[in-house]
Write a structure and sequence with these properties.
about 240 residues; alpha/beta; five-stranded parallel sheet
């Protein structure tokens, strides 16, 4: 039985949400205009919602012509057409219920320049139904700032640490909390940061326990995994 939609230039995974609890997400960057429009139209007609990452303002303009309810955030570059995300399994973190109000994740940044990647992570998690607390600009050059948020960090289901430069924020947080830490290296930094490689290597080589690392600037991947962790935390309470 075919469980995808054949479009010639794309094969939309229409059963992904049934299998994994998450619908297919569109990576917008690099897609020809006509392909992107047809993909958004098809997904919206089937699900009543579409979520896309790495979109441009031009792509927002062309999508808005066919789906006027489309929304675009210039910071995170997320292009979405919102709809009610269905519950596809135990542990769904629905905001606004007594059982799950105390469940949340934290998204931290080393600096303000890391916020675009952090917002991709935060808004991805929020789209999938996860409550997010933002703790921005708490890098190690003023370590008292992150220490002042220790209670918020420790209360979360998991923490996303987004940092460029040398990427030390994840190690600091990993030494403070018992919950999982998802480290996101960013391409922020001067020449010797090698477009995020320096932060990536620091995070991979961290001596702090409980840290996992996603790819450079991959806020979406971090937000996705954080949502999985939060859903599991909800289901075991």
């Amino acid at each position: 039985m075919k469980d995808y939609e054949e479009m010639g230039f794309a094969k939309l995974d229409t059963q992904r949400e049934n299998r994994t609890g998450f619908p297919e997400v569109v990576f917008c960057e690099g897609k020809p205009d006509e392909y992107l429009v047809e993909i958004y139209k098809k997904l919206y007609s089937q699900d009543g919602k579409v979520f896309g990452t790495r979109a441009s303002l031009h792509q927002y303009d062309i999508i808005k012509e066919v789906l006027p309810e489309a929304q675009y955030d210039e910071v995170s570059r997320i292009l979405k057409v919102s709809g009610e995300v269905s519950d596809n399994g135990v542990g769904r973190n629905k905001q606004g219920t007594d059982e799950t109000d105390r469940h949340y994740i934290v998204v931290c940044t080393g600096g303000t320049a890391d916020i675009p990647v952090a917002e991709e992570a935060a808004q991805t998690a929020e789209y999938f139904g996860t409550k997010v607390e933002r703790v921005y600009d708490v890098g190690v050059s003023g370590i008292h700032r992150v220490l002042s948020k220790e209670d918020v960090l420790r209360g979360a289901d998991c923490v996303i640490a987004v940092a460029g430069m040398e990427g030390a924020l994840a190690s600091v947080i990993g030494g403070l909390v018992s919950n999982p830490v998802i480290a996101v290296p960013t391409s922020v930094g001067y020449g010797a940061s090698f477009g995020g490689m320096s932060a990536l290597l620091t995070m991979i080589n961290s001596c702090a326990n409980g840290i996992t690392v996603v790819n450079i600037d991959n806020g979406y991947g971090a937000g996705y995994v954080a949502t999985q962790i939060s859903r599991l935390a909800c289901s075991t309470n």
